[in-house]
Every structure is written in C-alpha cells, then in structure tokens.
Amino acid sequence: MTTYKGINGTAIQNFAGDPPTPITGQVWYDSVAATFQYRTESTAGAWATGGSLNTARSQLGGAGTQISTLAFGGNTPTVTAITESYDGTSWTEVNDLNTARGEMASAGTQTSAIAAGGNTGSTVGNTETWNGSAWTEVADLNTARKLLGSAGADNTSALAFGGQPYPASAALTELWNGSAWTEVNDLNDDRDRLTGTGIATAALAIGGNDFGINKAVTESWNGTSWTEVNDLNTARYGLGGTGVQTSSLVFGGNVPSPVSALTEEWNGVSWVEVADLTTARTEMSAAGTTAAGLAVGGDTGSVTAATEEWNSPSTSNETITTS
Amino acid sequence: MAKTYQYCVATNWGKGFIDHVESQRITFKGLPGDVWQVPAYNKHGNLWIAKVGGVVKTVAEAQAIVDAEVQTAQAAWDALPDAEKAPALEMNTRPTDITLEE
After folding, report:
1. Shortest Cα distance from B83 to chain A (angstroms)?
2. B44 CB-near residues (< 8 Å, 6+ apart)
3. Distance from CA of B2 to the nearest CA of A (A)
4. What angle do CA A177, A179, A184 make, to 5 degrees?
5. Domain tally for chain B?
6. Residues of A in contact with B73 (CB under 8 A)
7. Are A278 and B14 in contact (CB < 8 Å)?
8. What does the alpha-carbon distance between residue A216 and residue A209 come to, in Å, rounded to a whole number?
9. ipTM of predicted assembly, 2 dp
10. B96, part of any domain
11. Interface probe, candidates B8, B11, B13, B15, chain A, greatest A C-beta count within 10 A
12. What range defines the domain where residue B48 resides?
C-alpha cells in the first residue's frame, strides 16, 4: 500500500493545532481538530485587515513596506501633523511633521522618507525629510502644489509630478536629489489626485483627474521623460499605488462617486483586475510591493483608521476531506 | 427569492479581523456603520461572523444603519464652508446613498 512516508520519506507529524512554520505542500495531523491538514498556496492575491491607525484620516502621506511603514499628515478632516509607525501589527505615534498638511507627495522608507507640497489650508511647496526619528524642513518645491503624485526610494532621491497649483491641474515634474528640487520634463497629461509608484529613475504616474474628468492614463518615467503606456481598466482618482515601474498595484479611489474597492495589478505591460479591497475607500496612503502591499486610512464616506494588507501569492492551511 | 448576501454588524479590531484565507474564500464588503456584507448560505461566511462576534441583521436593519451613517456624512459635507465645498463640488465628493443588495 502506498503510504505518505513511502512517498515523502517521513511520517505525518502530529501537532496540537498547526505547525509553527508550515511549508507549502506539508501535511500534518491536527490533534485538536482531529483532522488532517495541508498547506497550500494560491497565486491569487487577497486583502486582509491590518492594524488600525491611532488617528483616522485621509489624504495622508506614506512610505515603507507592509510591515515597516510610516504614515504622516492628512486630514482628520482638519489638517494634522501626526506621524505614525507600523510594525506589521500595530501603529505607534512618533514625532510630528513640522507643518501640518494633507494632499502631499510622499516616498521612501520607514527610516528615510520625504513629504513635499500639500495643503495646509493653503497650497504649499514645503518639503520635509524623515531620518527615522524626526522631520527636518528642507528646500521647497519650485512650484507649490497639492494632490500630486510621487515616487522615490528614500529621502535622497524622489520624483514629484502633476498636482494642483490651484485651480488648475499641472503636468509639472520635479526631481529631488537630497538637497534641492529641479524641474524636469512634464507629464504628457496634466492631472491631479493621481498616484505614483517606483523610484526617481523608473516610475509610473497612474490615474488622476483633470477638471472633473477621471483619468485612466498611465505614464512611465525612464529617468528623463514620460511615455504613455496602457491605461487602467477603470479611470479614477484618489487611488493608492505601490510597487515598482514593472510591477505595481493600485487600489480604491473615486470613480467618481461612490468610493471604489477596485484593485488592479500592473505586470509591466498592462493592468489586470484582481481582488477588491474589503472596504471601498479613497485618498488613502500606500506602502509595500505588489507581493505585500498596504492600504492605510483614507475616506470611506468619512475618514477611516482602517488598514488593509495585500498578499500575493497567499498561503493557507486547509483540511483534507474525503467527501 | 433566495438571498445572495447576509449582513452583520461587527467592529473591525484591525489585524486578524479578516485574514487572507477568509478573504480568499469569500468576498467581504465593508459598509458604513460597521456593517459587513458576506455571502448568504455560506459556511465560511457563517464561521467568520461567529469569529468576529457579528450581530446578524436583516437587509432592512442593515440598510437603516448604513442610511444613518451616510446621512451623517452627507450632513457634515453639506455643512462645509463654501470655500472648501467648491472644489469638492467639482469632484462630486458628497457621500452618496448606498443601497444594499438582497
């Protein structure tokens, strides 16, 4: 008779529950549930709830990864300077921005981030950099604006594009070198409330809005200029975005109203619809990668503290049944 | 007609409220007022409601909770100063009514 041990060279292990670190394909006996279990992996991504912010807000900045994240500023709905740090489970308040604002550009990591422009009640060009413990005021954007897109690896290298030097939307692009902003080539399609992914030399500008018209436009930055590539499946603004130029994830936004839960994944060529957020929202911040992303706060009709974690592929423990 | 969805009220406590396995098995829809929509007549939906201590509501009860939350958000939006409302009008960001499905 064929046995598991005969095929795999080991007997099925017995656990009171699940093994501490099961691997895909592993089979075990759960003595508590009195069932045989196995570890499986799905290529389809899914959203799960993450730890909630201490302060609910929308139009906030974000930087970092899914388990090492920084969220700063935003509207509660009044503008705030609050900065919070996430460890993959819970958020902790850290030092505030020097200038309270929402609707800013943001990029970087949990220990090296940048916040630029935004809305304090007035449109500003203020830029601040985060060194892991405090924010420092540095050189302003050349053109003050809010509702702009951004990309960047850390507080020494970033790109800010589009936005609204009220009342018109802009195609302006500026490059941050660690000490100053320099104007570089404009977007092909001016817009605000867009999102960005990638780094200062390889980025995407995605979606947005121009005078009430939703945009599905995606543009790719090669370090010198923008080129239009394939559109989103669903035009929208206020969406979150994370990833790199060749692999990105966008989620939520306004289509235009109500708020959306739609999630799309960029494979380097085109956008593919994947699983929706569990709670539709707009004007959130984003962090992470297409394999492990994070949607933080936003507006669901009112400001929310809720976060969601995207994982693709995801693994699960399943019960072996005979029926 | 058999219903497609069931509704419950449950407070999102954060990490673990909905995990990735649950999210892959069924489709969740979070709504205003801590109302959650999950598939009806579904073992995984029922297990999740039990896990989170959800209070099951009829569609009419859930609709009333959602309506109250939306109306509060709409009133807050309507009370915005005109200066803030002007760009919001352009973007049509006033919270919209939500109709729950059976």
Report:
1. 10
2. B22, B25, B26
3. 24
4. 45
5. 1
6. 301-302
7. no
8. 9
9. 0.87
10. no
11. B15
12. 5-91
**Å between A49 CA and nearest CA of chain B:** 5
**pLDDT per residue rounded down to tens, chain A (323 residues):** 666 666 666 678 899 888 888 888 888 898 888 888 888 776 689 999 999 999 999 999 999 999 999 999 999 988 999 999 999 999 999 999 999 999 999 999 999 999 999 999 999 999 999 999 999 999 999 999 999 999 999 999 999 999 999 678 999 999 999 999 999 999 999 999 999 999 999 999 999 999 889 999 999 999 999 999 999 999 999 999 999 999 999 999 998 767 999 999 999 999 999 999 999 999 999 999 999 999 999 999 889 999 999 998 766 677 787 65
Q: Which of residues 11-40 of B touch A (CB under 8 A)?
A: 12-24, 27-32
Show the tokens assigned to A61: 């900045």
Task: Report the alpha-carbon distance of residue A203 to residue A245 in Å, rounded.
Answer: 5
Q: Is residue B79 part of a domain?
A: yes
Is position B21 within any domain? yes
Q: Considering only CB atoms, which chain B residues are within 8 Å of A254?
A: 91, 93
Can you tell me whether residue A93 is helix, strand or coil?
Answer: strand
- Could you give the CA distance from residue A309 to residue B64 in angstroms, rounded to a whole number? 30
Q: Which CATH class is domain A46-311?
A: mainly beta
Q: Is residue B98 part of a domain?
A: no
Q: Do A46 and B24 touch (CB under 8 A)?
A: yes
Domain ranges of chain A: 4-42, 46-311
Amino acid in position B53? G
Chains A & B: contacts with CB separation below 8 Å: 92
Task: Point out the residue among A89, A209, A275 whose CB comes nearest to the CB of B91.
Answer: A209
Q: Could you tell me the pTM of the whole model?
A: 0.88
